[in-house]
Design brief:
Elements (H helix, E strand, L loop, with lengths): L3 H4 L14 H28 L7 H19 L1
Helix pairs in contact: 2-3
Length: about 80
């Protein structure tokens, strides 16, 4: 049995009325992902202009993960 004093803070704070419809949420997520991908593309171009062959491995992982997430968002 849970203690009522500790269970009070575990109640959901978002009501069903305030939740975004799935299409709006998908658009929001996709907008942020597109911004991240665009910024990483700019960093990639800057790296090439400075004579580097590629972005740092950390930025490449972020870019790859962003592309994969964007594909998952588009599938669903």
């Amino acid at each position: 049995m849970t203690n009522p004093k500790t269970a009070q803070g575990l109640e959901p704070t978002i009501s069903a009325d305030s939740m975004m419809p799935p299409t709006d949420l998908k658009r929001e997520v996709r907008t942020y992902l597109d911004t991240i991908i665009g910024y990483l593309d700019l960093l990639r171009e800057d790296a090439k202009e400075q004579g580097e062959k590629a972005m740092s491995p950390e930025l490449e992982r972020i870019w790859t993960a962003s592309i994969e997430l964007a594909a998952l968002v588009e599938e669903n």
